[in-house]
Design a protein that fits this description.
single chain; 296 residues; alpha/beta; Glutaredoxin; Glutathione S-transferase Yfyf (Class Pi), Chain A, domain 2; five-stranded mixed β-sheet; 9 helices; binds glutathione; Glutathione S-transferase omega; EC 1.8.5.1; glutathione dehydrogenase (ascorbate) activity
Length: 296
Protein backbone atom coordinates (compact mmCIF):
# COMPACT_ATOMS: atom_id res chain seq x y z
CA UNK A 1 0.00 0.00 0.00
CA UNK A 2 1.52 3.26 -1.11
CA UNK A 3 0.81 5.22 2.07
CA UNK A 4 2.20 2.70 4.48
CA UNK A 5 5.67 3.20 5.79
CA UNK A 6 7.59 1.03 8.16
CA UNK A 7 7.47 2.35 11.70
CA UNK A 8 11.23 2.77 11.66
CA UNK A 9 11.23 4.95 8.54
CA UNK A 10 11.37 8.59 9.48
CA UNK A 11 9.80 10.24 6.45
CA UNK A 12 10.90 13.77 5.58
CA UNK A 13 8.26 16.44 5.14
CA UNK A 14 8.06 18.20 1.80
CA UNK A 15 5.62 20.82 3.02
CA UNK A 16 6.87 24.30 3.82
CA UNK A 17 4.99 24.69 7.10
CA UNK A 18 5.70 21.29 8.50
CA UNK A 19 8.73 20.41 10.52
CA UNK A 20 10.10 17.31 12.16
CA UNK A 21 12.31 19.28 14.45
CA UNK A 22 11.63 17.86 17.90
CA UNK A 23 12.22 20.11 20.89
CA UNK A 24 15.31 18.95 22.73
CA UNK A 25 13.28 17.79 25.74
CA UNK A 26 11.75 14.97 23.69
CA UNK A 27 13.61 11.90 22.60
CA UNK A 28 13.03 11.33 18.90
CA UNK A 29 10.77 8.38 18.23
CA UNK A 30 10.70 7.24 14.63
CA UNK A 31 7.21 7.11 13.23
CA UNK A 32 5.05 7.84 10.21
CA UNK A 33 3.87 11.14 11.75
CA UNK A 34 5.58 14.12 10.17
CA UNK A 35 5.58 17.55 11.80
CA UNK A 36 4.08 16.64 15.15
CA UNK A 37 5.95 19.56 16.75
CA UNK A 38 5.26 22.03 13.95
CA UNK A 39 3.98 25.55 14.76
CA UNK A 40 0.21 26.12 14.75
CA UNK A 41 -1.32 27.82 11.74
CA UNK A 42 -3.60 30.72 12.53
CA UNK A 43 -6.13 32.91 10.78
CA UNK A 44 -4.43 34.60 7.84
CA UNK A 45 -1.91 31.79 7.32
CA UNK A 46 -2.39 30.04 3.97
CA UNK A 47 -3.32 26.39 3.90
CA UNK A 48 -0.19 24.34 3.16
CA UNK A 49 -0.50 22.58 -0.18
CA UNK A 50 -1.42 18.94 0.35
CA UNK A 51 1.05 16.41 -1.00
CA UNK A 52 -0.77 14.19 -3.50
CA UNK A 53 -1.65 10.81 -2.05
CA UNK A 54 -0.37 11.75 1.39
CA UNK A 55 -2.58 11.82 4.47
CA UNK A 56 -2.94 14.88 6.71
CA UNK A 57 -4.06 15.18 10.29
CA UNK A 58 -5.22 18.60 11.46
CA UNK A 59 -4.26 18.68 15.08
CA UNK A 60 -3.18 20.69 18.09
CA UNK A 61 -0.06 19.52 19.94
CA UNK A 62 -1.74 19.13 23.31
CA UNK A 63 -5.22 17.97 22.28
CA UNK A 64 -6.13 14.57 23.75
CA UNK A 65 -8.76 13.99 21.06
CA UNK A 66 -6.22 14.63 18.31
CA UNK A 67 -3.76 12.31 20.03
CA UNK A 68 -6.29 9.49 19.68
CA UNK A 69 -6.12 9.83 15.89
CA UNK A 70 -2.33 10.28 15.89
CA UNK A 71 -1.86 7.06 17.87
CA UNK A 72 -3.96 5.12 15.34
CA UNK A 73 -2.08 6.59 12.37
CA UNK A 74 1.26 5.75 14.00
CA UNK A 75 0.09 2.23 14.78
CA UNK A 76 -0.93 1.74 11.16
CA UNK A 77 2.27 3.33 9.86
CA UNK A 78 0.37 5.75 7.61
CA UNK A 79 2.66 8.48 6.34
CA UNK A 80 0.87 11.58 7.66
CA UNK A 81 1.66 15.27 7.64
CA UNK A 82 0.51 16.80 10.92
CA UNK A 83 -0.92 20.29 10.38
CA UNK A 84 -1.27 22.01 13.74
CA UNK A 85 -4.08 24.54 14.04
CA UNK A 86 -4.31 27.49 16.43
CA UNK A 87 -7.70 26.97 18.04
CA UNK A 88 -8.24 30.52 19.26
CA UNK A 89 -7.53 32.04 15.82
CA UNK A 90 -8.55 29.28 13.42
CA UNK A 91 -7.72 29.76 9.75
CA UNK A 92 -10.90 30.35 7.69
CA UNK A 93 -10.04 27.50 5.34
CA UNK A 94 -10.19 25.02 8.21
CA UNK A 95 -14.00 25.31 8.52
CA UNK A 96 -14.42 23.93 4.99
CA UNK A 97 -12.91 20.69 6.27
CA UNK A 98 -14.64 20.64 9.64
CA UNK A 99 -17.53 23.05 10.20
CA UNK A 100 -17.22 22.58 13.97
CA UNK A 101 -13.64 23.82 13.80
CA UNK A 102 -12.46 21.13 16.20
CA UNK A 103 -9.38 18.95 15.96
CA UNK A 104 -8.69 16.25 14.94
CA UNK A 105 -9.65 16.17 11.27
CA UNK A 106 -8.16 13.50 9.05
CA UNK A 107 -7.90 14.26 5.34
CA UNK A 108 -6.85 12.20 2.37
CA UNK A 109 -7.55 12.76 -1.32
CA UNK A 110 -9.80 15.75 -0.50
CA UNK A 111 -12.00 13.74 1.87
CA UNK A 112 -12.08 15.07 5.43
CA UNK A 113 -13.33 13.08 8.43
CA UNK A 114 -13.52 14.44 11.95
CA UNK A 115 -14.55 13.21 15.44
CA UNK A 116 -11.86 11.27 17.26
CA UNK A 117 -13.99 8.17 17.87
CA UNK A 118 -14.95 7.96 14.19
CA UNK A 119 -11.55 8.55 12.57
CA UNK A 120 -10.12 5.16 13.71
CA UNK A 121 -12.98 3.28 12.10
CA UNK A 122 -12.52 5.26 8.89
CA UNK A 123 -8.80 4.46 8.91
CA UNK A 124 -9.57 0.76 9.32
CA UNK A 125 -11.87 1.02 6.30
CA UNK A 126 -9.52 2.82 3.94
CA UNK A 127 -6.32 1.01 4.97
CA UNK A 128 -7.45 -2.62 5.08
CA UNK A 129 -3.85 -3.88 4.89
CA UNK A 130 -2.66 -1.93 7.94
CA UNK A 131 -3.03 -3.24 11.51
CA UNK A 132 -6.70 -2.79 12.51
CA UNK A 133 -7.69 -0.65 15.49
CA UNK A 134 -11.13 -2.20 15.97
CA UNK A 135 -11.60 -5.96 15.79
CA UNK A 136 -13.69 -7.27 12.87
CA UNK A 137 -15.58 -9.81 14.96
CA UNK A 138 -18.92 -8.15 15.83
CA UNK A 139 -19.16 -9.05 19.51
CA UNK A 140 -15.58 -8.09 20.37
CA UNK A 141 -15.98 -4.94 18.34
CA UNK A 142 -19.16 -3.98 20.16
CA UNK A 143 -17.53 -4.70 23.53
CA UNK A 144 -14.58 -2.44 22.68
CA UNK A 145 -16.97 0.37 21.81
CA UNK A 146 -18.88 -0.16 25.03
CA UNK A 147 -15.63 -0.08 26.97
CA UNK A 148 -14.65 3.25 25.42
CA UNK A 149 -18.03 4.63 26.45
CA UNK A 150 -17.59 3.33 30.00
CA UNK A 151 -14.03 4.63 30.25
CA UNK A 152 -15.13 8.10 29.20
CA UNK A 153 -15.54 8.79 32.94
CA UNK A 154 -11.78 9.42 32.97
CA UNK A 155 -12.16 12.06 30.26
CA UNK A 156 -14.99 13.63 32.23
CA UNK A 157 -12.95 13.50 35.44
CA UNK A 158 -10.02 15.27 33.81
CA UNK A 159 -12.21 17.87 32.09
CA UNK A 160 -14.02 18.50 35.39
CA UNK A 161 -10.79 19.46 37.17
CA UNK A 162 -9.68 21.54 34.21
CA UNK A 163 -12.97 23.47 34.14
CA UNK A 164 -12.94 23.99 37.90
CA UNK A 165 -9.44 25.48 37.76
CA UNK A 166 -10.17 27.54 34.66
CA UNK A 167 -13.39 28.83 36.21
CA UNK A 168 -11.43 29.87 39.31
CA UNK A 169 -13.99 28.07 41.45
CA UNK A 170 -13.68 27.57 45.21
CA UNK A 171 -11.39 24.99 46.77
CA UNK A 172 -14.52 23.02 47.67
CA UNK A 173 -15.57 22.81 44.01
CA UNK A 174 -12.08 21.80 42.88
CA UNK A 175 -12.03 19.20 45.65
CA UNK A 176 -15.34 17.81 44.41
CA UNK A 177 -13.88 17.58 40.89
CA UNK A 178 -10.84 15.71 42.24
CA UNK A 179 -13.24 13.34 44.01
CA UNK A 180 -15.02 12.64 40.72
CA UNK A 181 -11.73 11.93 38.96
CA UNK A 182 -10.75 9.49 41.71
CA UNK A 183 -14.15 7.79 41.42
CA UNK A 184 -13.52 7.53 37.66
CA UNK A 185 -10.22 5.76 38.36
CA UNK A 186 -12.06 3.37 40.70
CA UNK A 187 -14.65 2.58 38.02
CA UNK A 188 -11.98 2.10 35.37
CA UNK A 189 -9.98 -0.21 37.62
CA UNK A 190 -13.01 -2.51 37.71
CA UNK A 191 -13.15 -2.47 33.90
CA UNK A 192 -9.47 -3.31 33.37
CA UNK A 193 -8.61 -6.87 32.34
CA UNK A 194 -7.22 -9.36 34.82
CA UNK A 195 -3.71 -10.63 34.10
CA UNK A 196 -3.44 -8.69 30.84
CA UNK A 197 -1.98 -5.27 30.57
CA UNK A 198 -4.42 -3.96 27.97
CA UNK A 199 -8.15 -3.41 28.28
CA UNK A 200 -9.15 -6.17 25.96
CA UNK A 201 -6.30 -8.61 26.38
CA UNK A 202 -2.60 -8.88 25.66
CA UNK A 203 -2.60 -6.57 22.60
CA UNK A 204 -3.59 -2.89 22.68
CA UNK A 205 -6.66 -1.74 20.77
CA UNK A 206 -9.42 0.84 20.44
CA UNK A 207 -10.20 1.16 24.15
CA UNK A 208 -6.54 1.59 25.06
CA UNK A 209 -5.86 4.14 22.33
CA UNK A 210 -9.01 6.18 22.99
CA UNK A 211 -8.41 6.26 26.75
CA UNK A 212 -4.65 6.78 27.03
CA UNK A 213 -4.59 10.52 26.14
CA UNK A 214 -6.95 11.33 29.01
CA UNK A 215 -5.16 9.21 31.61
CA UNK A 216 -1.89 10.88 30.63
CA UNK A 217 -3.44 14.32 31.01
CA UNK A 218 -5.01 13.41 34.33
CA UNK A 219 -1.53 12.38 35.47
CA UNK A 220 -0.10 15.76 34.46
CA UNK A 221 -3.01 17.59 36.04
CA UNK A 222 -2.80 15.80 39.39
CA UNK A 223 0.98 15.66 39.71
CA UNK A 224 2.24 18.84 38.06
CA UNK A 225 -0.51 21.39 37.50
CA UNK A 226 -3.03 21.29 40.32
CA UNK A 227 -0.48 21.31 43.18
CA UNK A 228 1.12 24.42 41.66
CA UNK A 229 -2.05 26.33 40.75
CA UNK A 230 -3.90 25.36 43.97
CA UNK A 231 -1.24 24.85 46.64
CA UNK A 232 -4.06 24.84 49.22
CA UNK A 233 -5.15 21.50 47.74
CA UNK A 234 -1.70 19.97 47.28
CA UNK A 235 -2.33 17.56 50.18
CA UNK A 236 -5.45 16.24 48.41
CA UNK A 237 -3.39 14.99 45.48
CA UNK A 238 -0.07 14.19 47.13
CA UNK A 239 -0.72 10.45 46.79
CA UNK A 240 -0.26 10.82 43.01
CA UNK A 241 3.17 10.68 41.40
CA UNK A 242 4.08 10.54 37.72
CA UNK A 243 6.05 7.33 38.25
CA UNK A 244 3.64 4.50 38.90
CA UNK A 245 0.50 6.61 38.23
CA UNK A 246 -2.24 6.29 39.35
CA UNK A 247 -0.84 4.06 42.09
CA UNK A 248 -0.60 0.32 42.47
CA UNK A 249 -2.07 0.39 45.98
CA UNK A 250 -5.59 1.36 44.89
CA UNK A 251 -5.40 0.88 41.14
CA UNK A 252 -3.18 -2.14 40.51
CA UNK A 253 -4.49 -3.01 37.05
CA UNK A 254 -4.65 0.57 35.79
CA UNK A 255 -1.11 1.22 36.94
CA UNK A 256 0.19 -1.84 35.07
CA UNK A 257 -1.90 -0.79 32.05
CA UNK A 258 -0.41 2.71 31.95
CA UNK A 259 3.11 1.37 32.31
CA UNK A 260 2.54 -0.97 29.35
CA UNK A 261 0.82 1.71 27.26
CA UNK A 262 3.68 4.17 27.80
CA UNK A 263 6.08 1.69 26.18
CA UNK A 264 4.12 1.38 22.92
CA UNK A 265 5.82 2.92 19.87
CA UNK A 266 2.53 4.39 18.62
CA UNK A 267 2.00 6.16 21.92
CA UNK A 268 5.58 7.36 22.22
CA UNK A 269 5.41 8.74 18.67
CA UNK A 270 2.28 10.77 19.42
CA UNK A 271 3.03 12.20 22.84
CA UNK A 272 4.24 15.49 24.22
CA UNK A 273 6.44 15.44 27.32
CA UNK A 274 4.78 15.86 30.70
CA UNK A 275 6.87 18.97 31.23
CA UNK A 276 5.51 20.58 28.05
CA UNK A 277 1.96 19.44 28.74
CA UNK A 278 2.11 21.00 32.21
CA UNK A 279 3.54 24.25 30.85
CA UNK A 280 0.85 24.40 28.17
CA UNK A 281 -1.99 23.56 30.56
CA UNK A 282 -1.02 26.42 32.84
CA UNK A 283 -1.27 28.88 29.94
CA UNK A 284 -4.57 27.37 28.82
CA UNK A 285 -6.08 27.53 32.30
CA UNK A 286 -4.90 31.14 32.52
CA UNK A 287 -6.94 31.86 29.38
CA UNK A 288 -4.09 32.42 26.89
CA UNK A 289 -3.08 29.02 25.47
CA UNK A 290 0.47 28.98 24.11
CA UNK A 291 0.16 26.29 21.47
CA UNK A 292 3.75 26.73 20.26
CA UNK A 293 5.28 26.54 23.72
CA UNK A 294 8.69 24.86 23.54
CA UNK A 295 8.71 24.71 19.76
CA UNK A 296 10.81 27.75 19.04
N1 LIG B 1 -15.86 15.41 19.95
C1 LIG B 1 -14.64 15.90 19.38
C2 LIG B 1 -13.99 16.84 20.38
C3 LIG B 1 -12.72 17.46 19.83
C4 LIG B 1 -12.33 18.73 20.63
O1 LIG B 1 -13.13 19.27 21.41
N2 LIG B 1 -11.11 19.22 20.40
C5 LIG B 1 -10.73 20.47 21.00
C6 LIG B 1 -9.25 20.58 21.26
S1 LIG B 1 -8.67 19.46 22.49
C7 LIG B 1 -11.06 21.58 20.01
O2 LIG B 1 -10.95 21.40 18.83
N3 LIG B 1 -11.43 22.76 20.53
C8 LIG B 1 -11.68 23.90 19.71
C9 LIG B 1 -13.12 24.28 19.65
O3 LIG B 1 -13.96 23.57 20.23
O4 LIG B 1 -13.41 25.29 19.03
C10 LIG B 1 -13.73 14.74 19.02
O5 LIG B 1 -13.81 13.70 19.69
O6 LIG B 1 -12.96 14.83 18.04
Amino acid sequence: MRLLVRASAWAPSTSRCLSNAAPTHLAMVSSSLVGIHSPHLKNGDPEPAPVAGRARLFSMRFCPFAQRAAICLAKKGILTDIVNVNLVAKPDWYFAKNPKGTVPTFELDGKAVFESLIVPEYLDGIFPDAPPILPAEPYTRARQRILVEQLSVIKDGYVGIFMALKGKTSDEDVKAAIGKAIAALDESEKLAANNAPFFYGTAPGYADYMTYPFVDRLLVMLTEVLPVLRPTLAADVKQFTAAGFPGSGSWTKLTAWLEAAQQLDEIRASRQSHEMQAAFLKTYIAGAPEYDIGVR
